[in-house]
Specification:
The complex is a heterodimer of chains A (62) and B (544). With 62 residues, chain A is an all-alpha fold. Chain A contains three helices and no strands. Chain B has 544 residues and is an alpha+beta fold. The chains are: A mainly alpha (62), B alpha+beta (544). At the A-B interface, helix 2 of A face helix 10 of B.
Chain lengths: 62, 544
């Protein structure tokens, strides 16, 4: 399955809120650590190396 | 020892210097000269000698060096040592271990069990001090010599100059009685990471330095720590540095290892009071111990571009070097010896073209690349090179305490496994389409229990045609190459089912062609003489 780049989350605004809320009150270092954990957790959930590689490429595009 | 030779202290004096007639004669020609009596040179000399090829080994010391470097020896190494008649004392003396624990600071992150599947003669790993490993190889050499193997060991013989001619290498050798000269049809440099042969030939040895120092303290104590590998990231004890290791060896010796940073004063760190302060902090109050050996190491990941230069071949640390995380140094060097011995033997006997030796470079070069890759990844995990890699590293360690998935990212060294020679020139086709991947062409044969003994015992260091539930054609070999035939029937020879699981998978029957180093050349559902002969020719580098 290729990387999904079309909208795929119900209630995008609601998720975005939750993402920011997860960082609420954290220092920069704590936020960085949370982001790292989140990436690892999501990457494991995806699992598919081809999809992950594609995601890394898209993320590097800026 | 006399002038002209530094004598390093040795753990075991295994081959004392003795004057030989060569020293009073014009340069005598030898078929094979091995320079260096470390694990790799000794294994190579033993293998060649047992095949009947005369070999002279020169070492600048008189036995195994003092203090242990390597302690972890892998199953594949033990299998090779078993083929060479040297494994029994290693297993008797060695400490078998299976459990490892990884800590981050005060907390245990997880524990793992190496417990291999059953049905192998040898355990996944033993811990054994390197000097013992070398001594047992020398013992096996003495046994082989007594049985007529043409092996000669010369201690106190240092190679101090070398040139390569069209059909030989010329050596100058310095001894306590002065220098003499020698010639070698084939010269095998097993002279370690600081290889002088490599220097004499001006060959490059490039790679990455791991910018960190490791303090090794081998301590003797009877405290009741378990026989497990304990590894700490960010150890919680005073002065332990960025990582630390505790691991048991025979004779109540424990390996302690501290990652103490790049800018240090070596001599100051090695002062016994300083070492003791670290060890005390790690072991806790009231533990009595003696310091058996201490040393500070830096590590590198590097390899020579080519392991063969005409009639000079490089093996072991002389050819490639890795950090010790994963125990891939001596273990990969033994695989070099295993790979080279049969090839060199066939070339010297004129039964294979000398291009067979190029396959040694390709196969063991790919092994070296694989080891360097694993070793580099482990060092990157141990010493994150940037702020963000530190953040990810700590995130992994944090998650690994609670979630199994993150444990697979934790890398304190991926332990040595034999290399598979996938897609290399000697490796033939895989015609057993539903056969197990682990025994595919290029792989080292996996051991399995038979009704009587183990499978690898039946692969004696020559080409073997193995039939599983399949009739074998009437092929006895070719042009002086012996081809053993081993016909097994799973109904009677496979008491546990492991043989079928490891070699047949979903297939009902199979025929395997196996090399003298127990790697699979090719496999088929049934035997056809033409295909087997073609694979055999390919495996000894004969064209067409
Ligand atoms: C702290 C530490 C821990 C390690 N742990 C492990 C481990 O657990 N498992 C593992 O597999 N590996 C481990 N290693 C790596 C392992 O020690 C080496 O890979 C191994 O010793 C290489 O063997 P070798 O025969 O190629 O070279 P060496 O053992 O270095 O032997 C070279 C020999 O050549 C001789 N020599 C050198 N120059 C000359 C000359 N000019 N003339 C004559 N003789 C000469 C030397 O005296 C020496 O005897 C560890 C290394 C270190 C430093």
């Amino acid at each position: 399955m290729p990387l999904i780049l079309d909208p795929n989350i119900d209630d995008a605004d609601g998720f975005y809120d939750e993402l920011l809320a997860a960082h609420h009150g954290l220092t920069k270092a704590e936020s960085d650590a949370l982001n790292a954990r989140l990436i690892l957790i999501l990457a494991n959930h995806v699992g598919d190396r081809a999809v992950l590689r594609q995601a890394l490429e898209v993320a590097r595009e800026k | 020892m006399g002038p002209g030779l530094r004598a390093d202290p040795v753990s075991f004096r295994l081959y004392p210097y003795a004057r030989v007639p060569d020293q009073d004669a014009p340069a005598r020609r030898h078929a094979v000269v091995v320079v260096g009596g470390g694990p790799v040179g000794l294994a190579l000399a033993l293998d060649l000698g047992r095949r009947g090829t005369p070999v002279l080994l020169l070492d600048d010391n008189e036995g195994a060096g003092q203090g242990s470097r390597a302690i972890c020896f892998a199953k594949r190494t033990l299998e090779i040592a078993h083929r060479l008649g040297a494994a029994t004392p290693m297993l008797d003396k060695g400490v078998v271990w299976n459990v490892g624990r990884v800590f981050h600071g005060e907390h245990q992150v997880f524990e793992f069990d190496l417990q291999p599947e059953t049905g192998h003669r040898n355990p996944a790993f033993i811990n054994l001090q390197q000097p013992y490993f070398e001594r047992f190889l020398v013992d096996a050499i003495r046994t082989a010599q007594a049985e007529g193997a043409p092996i000669e060991l010369r201690g106190g013989n240092r190679v101090t100059a070398m040139t390569q001619e069209a059909d030989h290498a010329a050596l100058e050798v310095t001894t306590p009685d002065g220098a003499y000269t020698l010639e070698a049809d084939w010269l095998i440099a097993c002279d370690g990471a600081h290889s002088s042969i490599r220097d004499f030939m001006g060959l490059e040895f490039e790679g990455r330095v791991f910018e960190d120092n490791f303090l090794i303290a081998d301590v003797r104590m009877t405290a009741g720590f378990p026989t497990e590998r304990w590894f700490w990231f960010a150890p919680p004890f005073e002065g332990a540095g960025k990582s630390a290791l505790l691991h048991k060896q025979p004779d109540d010796i424990w390996r302690l290892d501290f990652q103490i940073g790049w800018d240090i004063d070596r001599a100051a760190e090695l002062a016994p009071e300083k070492v003791r302060a670290r060890v005390d902090a790690m072991l806790g109050p009231g533990v009595e111990y003696d310091l058996d050996w201490t040393s500070v190491y830096t590590f590198q990941c590097r390899r020579m571009r080519r392991f063969r230069h005409g009639r000079v071949l490089f093996a072991g640390d002389a050819a490639h070097q890795v950090s010790p995380f994963g125990a891939r140094g001596a273990n990969s060097g033994i695989q070099d010896a295993d790979n080279l011995a049969w090839k060199l033997d066939l070339v010297i006997r004129g039964q294979a073209p000398d291009t067979l030796l190029d396959s040694y470079c390709q196969e063991r070069g790919s092994g070296a690349d694989e080891n360097i890759l694993h070793s580099t990844r482990a060092t990157d995990f141990l010493t994150p090179k940037s702020e963000i890699s530190q953040i990810f590293r700590d995130a992994v360690l944090g998650l690994a305490r609670r979630h199994a998935f993150a444990r697979s990212f934790v890398n304190s060294g991926r332990l040595s496994e034999p290399c598979v020679y996938d897609d290399l020139p000697l490796t033939g086709a895989d015609a057993l389409t539903d056969g197990p991947a682990r025994t595919r062409p290029g792989a080292a044969c996996v051991d399995a229990p038979l009704a009587d003994g183990f499978l690898l015992d039946r692969l004696p260091g020559e080409f073997v045609l193995l039939g599983l539930n399949a009739p074998l054609p009437d092929l006895a070999g070719m042009e002086g190459i012996t081809l053993h035939r081993l016909a097994l029937d799973c109904a009677t020879d496979d008491p546990t089912g492991a043989l079928a699981a490891r070699y047949l998978g979903a297939a009902a029957q199979a025929v395997y062609l196996i090399r003298p180093d127990q790697h699979v050349v090719a496999r088929w559902p049934d035997a056809q003489a033409g295909a087997i002969t073609a694979a055999l020719r390919r495996a000894i580098a004969l064209k067409g």
